[in-house]
Amino acid sequence: MRNIKLVIEYDGTNYAGWQLQPNGVTVQQVMEEALTTLLHEPVRLHGSGRTDAGVHARGMVACFTTYRTIPLRAFSDGLNSLLPPDIAVRESAEVTPDFHPRYAATGKLYRYTIHAGRRRSPLSRLYAWHLRGELDLDAMRRAALFMVGEHDFAALRGAGCAAKTTVRRVDGIAIEKQGELVTIDVRGSGFLRHMVRNMVGTLVEVGQGRRVADSIPALLAAGERGGAGATAPACGLCLVEVYY
């Protein structure tokens, strides 16, 4: 039995997220259908996590097992010939039987992109949150420092989150600007449902002067979702890399 690891890139605009669900087409569903066509056998993919509807990925990792002896290259080039233009396999590798993309992961990197311009941009509308007006990036960076480390992030957890504990470790947050695009890179051991998008929504309030940077510790200590900022739109979020 072979255990095949895939690194997958996708534009999540037209999908109801990564994970299989009954109320919409998902990336996992499309991937499994293409693999079934390629291998002539049912295939179940195990992903490194979930992404919500509209969220993108550059480095989603998934694994499946098969007895087929086709060349490894077929799991990238061959599979890509069967996939739609908004999904592609970037890498394929054969890994040990005990490797699981979720449980073996040591961390993840997400990037959130904001288009901070006076006028909307049709070319970035599917991949960035358009906000008019300047953001105080220094204030946002000060606020972000309070989110780094191991904390109870209940205040930044989205509704419907089934995690047994809301304690997570954030290893770093980097906020940069190039032209009208602001990127917020968040690295951590793992994230709660909507956690990164809620972090961004809260940091944006700081950048707009509607919340002070020093208020973050009290927000986290209170643990109340209503005290944090609004959930940033899904279109600006991208899973960049999963670490092992």
Care to describe what's here?
Belongs to the tRNA pseudouridine synthase TruA family. This protein has 244 residues and is of the alpha+beta class. The chain folds into 2 domains: 2-95, 2-Layer Sandwich (Alpha-Beta Plaits); 107-243, Pseudouridine synthase I, catalytic domain, C-terminal subdomain (Alpha-Beta Plaits, 2-Layer Sandwich), CATH 3.30.70. It has helices at 27-39, 77-80, 137-145, 195-207, 216-222; strands at residues 2-10, 46-47, 56-66, 87-95, 107-115, 129-130, 149-152, 167-178, 181-188, 237-243. Strands 1, 2, 3, 4, 5, 6, 7, 8, 9 and 10 form a 10-stranded mixed β-sheet that branches. Strand 8 and strand 9 (181-188) form a beta hairpin. Helix 3 (137-145) crosses helix 4. It is globular, with a radius of gyration of 19 Å. The mean pLDDT is 96.
CATH topology of the largest domain: Alpha-Beta Plaits
Question: What is the C-level CATH assignment of the largest domain?
Answer: Alpha Beta
N-to-C SSE string, H for helix and E for strand: EHEEHEEEHEEEHHE
Distance between the termini: 22 Å
Number of separate structural domains: 2
Residue runs with pLDDT of under 50 for 5 or more positions: none
As a percent range, the share of strand residues is 25-35%
Jot down its keywords:
Alpha-Beta Plaits, 30% strand, 2 domains, TruA/RsuA/RluB/E/F_N, 10-stranded mixed sheet, alpha+beta
SSE layout:
Blueprint: E1 2-10, H1 27-39, E2 46-47, E3 56-66, H2 77-80, E4 87-95, E5 107-115, E6 129-130, H3 137-145, E7 149-152, E8 167-178, E9 181-188, H4 195-207, H5 216-222, E10 237-243
Parallel strand pairs: 3-10, 5-6
Antiparallel strand pairs: 1-3, 1-4, 2-3, 5-9, 5-10, 7-8, 8-9
